[in-house]
Amino acid sequence: MRGQQFLGRDAYVRIGSGGVPSRVSQLIRPPAFSHYYTRRALPQPIGSLDLCLLHFAASFVPGPLWQLVRGGPLTTLAATVGAGLFLFPMTLAAAKLMALAPAEGALYSWTVRLLGPYWGAVVGISDWLPGLLAAVSALMSFVVTLQSLKAGWLVEPWQRGLVILVLLILLLLLGWQRQRTVQRVVNALSALMLIIVALSGICSLVLLQQRAWSLPPSWRSGWPADRFPHTPASLTALLYLGYGAPLSMAGELRPGLTPGRPLLGSALLLSGSYLLLAISALLAPDGEPGLVLEMALGHPAGSLALVGLLAFYLCVAFVHTAACARLLLVAALDGLVPTKLAWLNQQRIPWRAFAAQTLLAGLLTTLFSVLLPQMHLDKASSFIALPLLLATMALLRMFVAFFCLYILILASYYGSLMTPDSRVASPWWLWPTTVAGVAGSTLVALGILTSSWTPMLPDATWTLLAGILILVCLGTATMAALPATAHARRLGPHLLLSLQEEETAQPQEQASVPT
Which domain holds residue 367? Predict the structure, then answer.
């Protein structure tokens, strides 16, 4: 940001402080107003450990892994291949984009600069919607897990509604706090989940040594394939969809932080946690890894593990809600949504955007957990609506992944024109990462569309419904971007003019980014 000026479609970027301006290709537009404002107005407390655990909290989803392990060796192999074809390529792509555009909504920021405001709005909406669905999924997982603790709990719809109301209040109270305080809570709950996973892995090894275990039926040789439920390998997509949360909060990284190592460390941590959980799922009766701690350490240990899982689900809901709130903040600053959502509280947190995002997630959770069961549609909500919701979220993430890899190639090429740092030029891993990411995203998208995630829908009906839902979401994004972009074009010159006046009035003070 230092020394940058707006000069219409041509961007003159000053190298360093007081250096000679360099002419940038007309294909590169000036950064949006939000690119500058968020780096000035928002706190920047996220360090290396914070970024690592933030990515872990946004990505770690144990439920689909348990189903994949119970499905047999082939589905477990698919989860392993997915790490190489999707997790690590998207982690490297996210780290690169965060380094090139250290502002809120890094993917949106680079899309605006390289493809224009319209495609930036399309990508922003497509990135925001799966984050909303991920928060809804985490809240629903909390309700389902709490309901499974004891028979007779949360049977009535009003009881589930009361639990959802308490969760929303907790999210709102947590979202009002300082970012540093919130990050400590996220770190603590993520560390607690890691401790539970590590203890589960250790207990699994002990049970393995004592031979107090037996393989699940789907892993035994000669077991008929029709004796256990079919598990689609495309469920692997749900394990690695958390790359969007760090991209949305890139403007809150500490100055000078290189995001590559923390994100890669989180990817390795995520892979190791999944490996330990897979071993636990193999050794526990009926494939339930939550019973491993109870088998080895007693009933209190199993209950504490479930409580820790509940706390982690709340943490996941908060992380995705906070990331989506940052996207709403960026959209409000650029005039794509009402500017009132850009209001910051005393802790410099986008409170209105966070509150709106929380309430919207609460409404959708109430719809699936309370209203549909009250309409005697329990099977529809549990076995049809929820799988379709998750599949739509995964397909949207695949669409955003394609854009992320495409923008990465363009940004790595044109980024070398805007900085003298040779490291910005295309690294040796760029093309292998892009090829692996595109191949993985394509295979996962095709697998989701062609293989049903619920036994209540045949593959043909599933393909039709999932295809309609993803087309509706993408069509809504493209149509909603038209009026939003038109309004942003009218508002944009006034915002840029105010920023230029600020630069002229206080050139020395604004040259450095406040910490």
Answer: 43-491
